[in-house]
Structure formats: C-alpha cells, structure tokens
Amino acid sequence: MNISKREQRVLHVLAQGGAIHFKRLPNGKICNIRCFTREGHVLADCDLQLFDRLKKRRFIKSVSGQPYRATRLGISSVNSQQDNR
Does any domain span residue 85? Predict the structure, then answer.
C-alpha cells in the first residue's frame, strides 16, 4: 500500500506508543488535533487532512473517546525504521 512520508512518520510515532489527542465541536466534528510522542513531544507534521486520511484508511482508531492510536493494520503498514536513540 502506498503511504506518504508524512503518513509514515505519524504511524511510526503511533506504533512506538504515541497518541493523537483531539477536541470536538458541539456538533461532534473533530476541530483540533495534536500528535504526541510517547515522551510527550508534539509532532508538527500531523494536521487535520493527514488525520482524516489515516482514519479513512483505518490506520488509526479511538476506543470510547480515548486518544487515537495505531491499529494492527496501521502498524503492519508502516515500514520499519531504525530508532535514533
């Protein structure tokens, strides 16, 4: 499956334990998102359009109002990367 570099970057962060926190409008639509790494840093590459693409492809999922996390499909779709620590 073709995944852009930005999608790869976000999925890699989520696969390592990060999460996408969101805020909803009163009508239920998501208006603001922030992608956090597991260390608590904010990933600047994640925007609403990228979020919608990942959600549409079922790479990320939220369970009962919790932050969005990577699904099994999302984790298996991301190319492995060497961890730079």
Answer: no
Element (H or E) spanning 9, and its range?
Answer: helix 5-15
- The verdict on residue 83 lying in a domain is no
Give the pTM.
Answer: 0.87
Q: Which residues pair with 21 in a beta bridge?
A: 34
| Per-residue pLDDT of the chain in tens (85 residues, 90 and over written 9) | 688 899 999 999 999 999 999 999 999 999 999 999 999 999 998 999 999 999 999 999 999 989 999 999 998 888 776 665 5
In a domain, 40, yes or no: yes
CA separation (Å) from 51 to 31, 40, 79, 82? 11, 19, 18, 24
Residue-number span of the structural domain to which 47 is assigned: 5-75
